[in-house]
Amino acid sequence: MRALLQRVLEAKVIVDGQVTGEIQHGLLVFLGLGKEDQLEKGKKLIDKILKYRIFDDEQGKMGWNVAQAQGGLLLVSQFTLMAQTQKGLRPDFGPAMPPDAAKVLYEQLVDYAKSQFGQVQTGIFAADMKVHLINDGPVTFQLEVE
């Protein structure tokens, strides 16, 4: 399981011309699920994302998490994060969780995130999403949990 976090000034997801999720200041999180991933591991990752301190505090240092910064969280499924890219000139998506199982786990993780944090928006699983963002910094991190 991998998460790519981007600190944003604003972000939104558009599917078929309609906005499906939108935040102002906060975190845009692309979430990739692997074949062996399970809900407990995902909960650990969501907890880490919510506690990860990448927002400026009163001293201008990365000391605040998304809640302390009064930001939002936009979760977007992205199976391409699980691609193996070390060999050849084409990504290998073999490590990614199959779509049916991934949809169930993704929805469980969205529900968990909403139970832990009040400002959660999402894209639509497996949809052709257009993601618009203004990266703040830019500040981008990749997170994984054991």
Task: Set down the secondary structure blueprint.
Blueprint: E1 2-15, E2 18-23, E3 26-32, H1 39-51, E4 55-56, E5 62-64, E6 72-77, H2 99-116, E7 120-122, E8 130-143
Parallel strand pairs: 3-6, 6-7
Antiparallel strand pairs: 1-2, 1-3, 1-8, 4-5
Short description:
This protein is of the alpha/beta class.
Q: Keywords, please?
A:
single chain, 6-stranded mixed beta sheet, 2 helices
Describe this protein's structure.
The chain is of the alpha/beta class and 146 residues long. The protein has a single domain (2-135), classed as D-tyrosyl-tRNA(Tyr) deacylase (D-tyrosyl-trna(Tyr) Deacylase, Chain: A, 3-Layer(bba) Sandwich), CATH 3.50.80. The chain is 21% helix and 38% strand. It has two helices and eight strands; from the N terminus they run E-E-E-H-E-E-E-H-E-E. The chain has helices at residues 39-51, 99-116; strands spanning 2-15, 18-23, 26-32, 55-56, 62-64, 72-77, 120-122, 130-143. Strands 1, 2, 3, 6, 7 and 8 form a six-stranded mixed β-sheet that branches. The longest helix is centred in the last third of the chain and has 18 residues, at 99-116. It is globular. The model has no long low-confidence stretch (mean pLDDT 97).
Fraction of helical residues: 10-25%
State the CATH architecture: 3-Layer(bba) Sandwich
* Quaternary structure of the protein: single chain
Which structural class do you get from the secondary structure elements?
Answer: alpha/beta
Termini separation (Å)? 9 Å
Q: Label the overall shape.
A: globular
**Which regions are unreliable across 5 or more consecutive residues at pLDDT < 50?**
none
Overall number of strands: 8
Helix tally?
A: 2
